[in-house]
């Protein structure tokens, strides 16, 4: 789930990384907009409903493997 979210939100990851480059403490307030955009994107792919869908897909996959054996 995390890997898919990061892949889907690569554009926002890059924007945040570019903003954060060369900063230490100031990244908190200087990159607030980019962090918010990244978090909103990541939340689309890392919420409870997505997790439930992935669990169901996994269970179906496991059941089909068992049926083949």
Automatic annotation (TrEMBL):
Compartments in which it is found: Mitochondrion
GO cellular component: mitochondrion
Family: Belongs to the CMC family.
InterPro entries per UniProt: Cyt_c_biogenesis_Cmc1-like
Annotated keywords: Disulfide bond, Mitochondrion
UniProt key word Cell membrane: no
Protein's UniProt name: COX assembly mitochondrial protein
Organism (species): Digitaria exilis
Major localization listed first in the record, in broad terms: mitochondrion
């Amino acid at each position: 789930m995390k890997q898919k979210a990061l892949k889907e939100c690569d554009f926002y990851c890059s924007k945040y990384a570019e903003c954060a480059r060369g900063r230490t403490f100031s990244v908190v307030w200087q990159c607030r907009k980019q962090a918010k955009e990244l978090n909103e994107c990541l939340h689309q792919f890392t919420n409870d409903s997505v997790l439930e869908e992935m669990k169901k897909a996994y269970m179906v996959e496991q059941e089909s493997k068992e049926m083949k054996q």
